[in-house]
């Protein structure tokens, strides 16, 4: 079993964190079964958010009786201290607990600090002093904001996208967290579904001794694969290195991560899927992508009004309208039977 300690905290976990965003898509019974199976197999770090509909409630129903044996991390999208208090109270109630191990400010556009107008950090700190939360965390998709949060010294844990498709700047961010003794939790370890070899993803991230990946789990077969890694962790063999190098050559750089922070679109384009359809349709085949509804989804790109709001919101500085048009052209060629390389 490979374990990681999150920076200066006392949290020590094997490197299979349970990402609970996807369990909002399954029934309570299915979610409880998945969560209990994960716990019984030795998974102890569970990450959710107030914004993940009923994910917190499902964790509370499944794991409240083993609360002292697990770590729970959740997040708040609150913009004010008052709203943060309200969300924290709701999270505590739904999670059926009187404290949260890691309470994270969820992707703010700035770094909250003591005494600022938002009151977010001050409120979180008061909650920590009361014992309602143990550690204050920060999640983001903007690397400059994430760097600022780390260097502020105010946050115990940073959660940021990290996989073997990471840029040099993102790798430097991981190293900065190590230098500053800040825990690093890796979201999107499978790059939003673009990485399809879990063993390769696991073996790569295992090379970073300060990184705790959280793996989004929705289906039992997905969980079973990650559970198998606990007793038989994949190693970075020549075969897995070849898979990683091939993916890096095809995917690194100017691609949509599917984070959806560009949405909603004023003409209802599903940007988080449409702007990366070229990769999805090849790497994560789904009958929906080529169905009548899938074609309607993609054809909405032709209604783009070039408002450029998606560009302004993109944390990766992508030219999203151009990506959308490129993906639509590629998609039409695929649908018509012409494969584009």
CATH superfamily of the largest domain: NADP-dependent oxidoreductase domain
Large-scale geometry: globular
Averaged pLDDT, please?
Answer: 94
The helix/strand class is: alpha/beta
How would you sum up the major sheet?
A: 8 strands, parallel, barrel
CATH architecture of the largest domain: Alpha-Beta Barrel
Radius of gyration: 20 Å
State which percent range the strand residues make up.
5-15%
Amino- and carboxy-terminal Cα gap: 40 Å
The count of strands amounts to 10
- The CATH class name of the largest domain reads Alpha Beta
Helix content: 40-55%
Q: Structurally, how many domains make up the residues?
A: 2
CATH topology (level 3) name of the largest domain: TIM Barrel
Strand order of the largest sheet: 3-4-5-6-7-8-9-10
The unreliable regions are none
Number of helices: 14
How is this structure best described in words?
This protein has helices at residues 28-41, 55-63, 81-95, 120-129, 143-152, 168-180, 198-205, 220-231, 238-251, 271-274, 277-283, 292-299, 309-313, 320-335; strands at residues 3-5, 12-14, 17-19, 45-47, 71-76, 100-106, 133-139, 157-161, 183-187, 211-216. The protein is of the alpha/beta class. An eight-stranded parallel barrel has the order 3-4-5-6-7-8-9-10, surrounded by four helices. α5 (143-152) links the parallel β7 (133-139) and β8. α1 (28-41) runs parallel beside α8 (220-231) and α2 (55-63) packs parallel to α3 (81-95). The longest helix is centred in the last third of the chain and has 16 residues, at 320-335. The mean pLDDT is 94.
